[in-house]
Amino acid sequence: STADSAVTLLDYGAGNVRSVRNAIRHLGFEIKDVQTPADILNANCLIFPGVGAFAAAMDVLNKTGMAEALCTYIEKDRPFLGICLGLQLLFESSEENGPVNGLGLIPGVVGRFDSSKGFRVPHIGWNALQIAKETEILDDIGNRHVYFVHSYRAMPSHENKEWISSTCNYGEDFIASVRRGNVNAVQFHPEKSGDVGLSVLRRFLLPKSSLTKKPTAGKASKLAKRVIACLDVRTNDKGDLVVTKGDQYDVREHTKENEVRNLGKPVELAGQYYKDGADEVSFLNITGFRDFPLGDLPMLQVLRCTSENVFVPLTVGGGIRDFTDANGRYYSSLEVASEYFRSGADKISIGSDAVYAAEEYIRTKVKTGKSSIEQISRVYGNQAVVVSIDPRRVYLKNPSDVELKAVRVTDPGPNGEEYAWYQCTVSGGREGRLIGAYELAKAVEELGAGEILLNCIDCDGQGKGFDIDLIKLISDAVSIPVIASSGAGAVEHFSEVFTKTNASAALAAGIFHRKEVPIQSVKEHLLKEGIEVRI
Ligand code: 1PR
């Protein structure tokens, strides 16, 4: 019966497991949710996608009696798949806000990556595995990339050796998956790892006898550089939600009607980019700064629909801030973000509000815990919080003309200026502030941002290449990943940004929307240039 073949899902309500649900359904299975510990004991097949922080998860599991049920279920060697935190919780303890005790089934302590080794933390992106032992669910991966996003990891040791089915190298070898009998857990996200990830889930869900091993392909070895497709979304004058694209942030046609440029439908384009091999898809609700995003239900609908068919990470930005609506009801930025996460976002991106928070933090040197960055990263983790920077170049004759960080620019300004500082803006570039991209990046990293999406208004939509001076400045200033954005016009621009700067990812919009350069060509070019990408 269907009830017998249903997959039991342990969702303790701490975050977004929508994508795991979508992936299971996409593979044709029904889902039964765990309500009581007995549901765990009676499961035929249990998936545990851990989300949120370690301590909070253990708290819920202990209080509800589910911790004990899980231990019993696993000790009986019943089919189990833990994902991400669902792997970490099997260990003895974690250093995350701790030490905090875990389920204690696997010897070892979960610790934080050490960013002093020159590797960026969180570890975000597509990485290769080293298979340590025969494990059916990993058989299709071979040496293709899978998607990781985490700051904590379990380490291989003599005591846990018999559990390890694969490791991953990110500055050090950490545990990428464990397996004993029918019990499996993976640190990466199969539900966000495209086709390769879906096959991990399929192999876990299908009877073993139906599985054949596929020949391995590719030659993944380390963290791949990501190629991200970005969709700037807004409502046009007719009231339809469209993908638009600006020139230096001006999205209107230069015609008599002055209409908003329409480059397609958000859900369709996102689906297309997933098929074309985008490593991530970002939606920026570009009028979010003036509209209340929770009133903007079409955007939530776009996320819901997209996440049903797109199995790579989704980021959404625009309008994330504390807000009081027309009826006087107050919404915290955390509530706004939560709604985005529930609708299928993996990361949220904060623009204007991050500028205000950074200004305040620099002025007072106090972390209040109240800024949107702090609130959201505390609950969902740093890796879920992206800060989008929208800077504009301000040329200088002399770097000491400002008290902000200035750099020598490759191309001098209109009056032969050899220096510039990068002025942050808010409200979609409409207002310049007295803070530079450099100062902002350092401040938001301290406040808990996990990644930076670095735009440049001067380069946006120009197709003349990324602002290498800016991207070098910022990617050398912080130890969180930096996404280079604005200005891609040819495949060579991508290899340039990856060879000349420490960017972890490159994002483009216009060339993909106008079908000038397919994502696949970008990847092939990068491979040819010896830059590792996911194929
Ligand atoms: O301030 O938190 O509400 O967030 C608003 C968000 O919307 C910010 O992330 C901001 O970057 C974005 N945004 C606001 N106005 C515009 C606009 O274009 N008028 N778009 C805008 C930003 C820049 C990139 C673009 C790249 C690549 N667009 O997202 O996709 O520059 O383009 P290209 O490859 O075509 O050069 P808040």
UniProtKB/TrEMBL annotation:
InterPro entries assigned: Aldolase_TIM, Class_I_gatase-like, GATASE, His_biosynth, HisF, IGPS_HisA/HisF, IGPS_HisHF, Imidazole-glycPsynth_HisH
Catalyzed chemical reaction(s): L-glutamine + H2O = L-glutamate + NH4(+); 5-[(5-phospho-1-deoxy-D-ribulos-1-ylimino)methylamino]-1-(5-phospho-beta-D-ribosyl)imidazole-4-carboxamide + L-glutamine = D-erythro-1-(imidazol-4-yl)glycerol 3-phosphate + 5-amino-1-(5-phospho-beta-D-ribosyl)imidazole-4-carboxamide + L-glutamate + H(+)
Localization (cell): Plastid, Chloroplast
Primary localization class, coarse: plastid
Domain Glutamine amidotransferase: 9-204
CDD domains with a match to the protein in the record: GATase1_IGP_Synthase (cd01748), HisF (cd04731)
E.C. code: 3.5.1.2
Annotated protein name in UniProt: Imidazole glycerol phosphate synthase hisHF
